[in-house]
Design a protein that fits this description.
- The chain is of the alpha+beta class.
- 18% of the residues lie in helices and 46% in strands.
- It is built from three helices and nine strands.
- About 12% of the residues have low confidence.
């Protein structure tokens, strides 16, 4: 028969493990398989410059409130998924926008949070994700603005068309 102390320790240990499991993705999981890019370049795109070019094997980090931009190079008819991992969550803010541009920046697509709590949308795994299908092949400028107070990591996923 198990002692009361052993039973309590097992219960506490199980609760701790359940708590860890319920938290979902951690920082290490989010950046696994990707290299850090300080995103401090000046890459010409759309009559301005972007800090870096992101693919699935790179990640960046920074702080909101603020602005960040980067380039994603894709074939035609590809979905670009922007993923933000909230390392800290101080305040979700009122306005978060992600803008995906077609090459040349004549056409764009926009996500706006419109007051929605982006931390709540991210949920327990702390990953906020939005996607957009782009039509043309080439370099796509992606801009992210947010008035949230958070330290974040960002990655992209590129979903190419089935051939």
């Amino acid at each position: 028969m198990m002692s009361a102390r052993t039973a309590r320790l097992l219960l506490v240990g199980s609760a701790c493990m359940l708590g860890l499991w319920a938290c979902g993705v951690d920082r290490g999981d989010f950046i696994k398989g990707a290299d850090y890019d300080p995103c401090q370049s000046n890459l010409p795109v759309c009559q301005q410059t972007a800090g870096c070019a992101l693919g699935e094997n790179k990640y960046i980090e920074g702080d909101f409130p603020g602005y960040r931009n980067f380039i994603v190079t894709t074939p035609a008819d590809t979905t670009i998924v922007v993923k933000l991992f909230f390392d800290t969550r101080e305040h979700p803010g009122e306005d978060t926008e992600i803008i995906w541009y077609e090459p040349g920046c004549y056409d764009s697509y926009k996500y706006r949070s419109q007051g929605d709590d982006i931390f709540a949308i991210a949920g327990g795994d702390r990953v906020f994700s939005q996607e957009q299908k782009v039509r043309r092949e080439g370099d796509h400028l992606v801009e992210v603005y947010s008035d949230a107070y958070t330290h974040y990591l960002a990655r992209v996923e590129i979903i190419t068309p089935m051939n």
